[in-house]
Specification:
This protein folds into three domains: 42 residues, no CATH class; 159 residues, D-Maltodextrin-Binding Protein, domain 2 (3-Layer(aba) Sandwich), CATH 3.40.190; 115 residues, Periplasmic binding protein-like II (D-Maltodextrin-Binding Protein, domain 2). The protein is 45% helix and 17% strand. The protein contains twelve helices and eleven strands. The strands form two sheets. A six-stranded mixed beta sheet has the order 2-1-3-10-4-11, with helices on both faces. Strand 6, helix 7 and strand 7 form a beta-alpha-beta unit. Helix 3 crosses helix 10.
Length: 345
């Protein structure tokens, strides 16, 4: 173990005294000093990682794509890591509440963040008081999946397809509302993008997560929402929601008869992707151990089949690739937010 000169001198002196009990005590004290002052010996604490259960903080409500995929990954990671893995939902303010709560946890790798690009890269531009920097405050671990959003309406909505919807919405500005998982989320900005690029004036109704938003669309309190494919697919198949268009550049194989919105609105696109993050101060060895475990889980054919059923395209970004992706997208979303005039108000 490498540590400070003072701690090393104490250990050397104890060896000369031949006092094994005293030596053990001083070693513990030296390690504590290393951890407290951020010295190299702290890396040794990751040697037996993980030695206790892990928490996955999800900054969204249960039932949405981030939660669904997080729970699948937790179930698969537990046997690989040899420890229980628990999903902890902390929704609110477009992901701000859960993300801030995560950053208050010890940076030891036993609490990780599983979040979407919208919560991580869009929200800071929308919420002035988000109080987190997605680049400086986090250590990227791995991106695991990418999905389109689906423009869904209650079956009672008069438009039967995308073309009818566009004509109806243009003819009735400010008459129709769309629900979202909260201000600054991707399904909020997709609605703003549709307004801006499609010449519409839909009114935004924010919720504390996609599940309550979808509940009100299912109950016809609000006529429509953008929902991620995994969170909406079952209701679409059951006829409880009508899918009008997908946000990806091409149609989804799971909904081949549903057009991509850019077929009617050129330049419209925006997919959701989900990823694991540690705190920036987490030991690098711990981040690598988590990345290796996630790589092992992602190689499981059963997981790929499950993702395919949900409409989730697997991603293979490791720490370096994820860092590059988020750096580029962070600036891209800034431009989209400013063009749409999206705010948390």
């Amino acid at each position: 173990m490498r540590c400070s000169p003072m701690a090393a001198a104490c250990i050397t002196y104890s060896r000369k005294k031949g006092n094994d009990v005293y030596l053990k005590s001083l070693k513990k004290g030296a390690l504590a000093l290393c951890i407290a002052f951020g010295l190299p010996g702290a890396a040794g604490a990751a040697d037996d990682y993980p030695s206790r259960p892990l928490n996955i903080f999800v900054p969204t409500a249960p039932g949405g794509t981030v939660d669904i995929v997080a729970r699948i990954m937790a179930e698969k990671l537990a046997p690989v890591l040899g420890q229980p893995v628990v999903v902890v939902n902390k929704p609110g303010a477009g992901g701000v509440v859960g993300t801030q709560a995560f950053l208050r946890e010890p940076a030891d790798g036993y609490t990780v963040l599983f979040t979407a690009n919208s919560n991580q890269l869009i929200v800071p531009w929308v919420y002035p008081d988000a109080k987190f920097d997605p680049i400086a405050d986090f250590a990227p671990i791995a991106a695991v999946g990418q999905v389109p959003n689906v423009l869904c309406v209650n079956p009672s909505f008069p438009a039967r397809d995308l073309q009818e919807f566009m004509a109806l919405a243009k003819a009735n500005p400010d008459q129709y509302e769309y629900a979202s998982a909260g201000a600054g989320t991707l399904n909020h900005l997709l609605g703003e993008m549709l307004n801006e690029r499609g010449g519409l004036r839909l009114r935004h109704i924010p919720y504390r997560g996609v599940a309550p938003a979808m509940s009100d669309v299912l109950g016809n309190q609000v006529p429509m929402l953008f929902a991620s494919l995994p969170s909406a697919l079952e209701s679409i198949k059951a006829g409880k929601l009508r899918a009008l268009g997908v946000s990806s550049e091409a149609r989804s194989p799971l909904l081949p008869d549903v057009p991509a919105i850019n077929e009617a609105v050129p330049g419209f696109s925006g997919d959701l992707w989900v990823a694991f993050y540690a705190a920036r101060q987490a030991p690098p060895a711990t981040v690598e151990a988590l990345h290796a475990a996630i790589r092992q889980v992602m190689a499981d054919p059963a997981l790929r089949q499950k993702f395919d059923q949900l409409g989730v395209a697997m991603m293979s970004d490791g720490p370096a690739e994820l860092a590059r992706r988020q750096q580029a997208e962070f600036q891209q979303w800034k431009q989209v937010v400013q063009a749409a005039g999206a705010t948390s108000d």
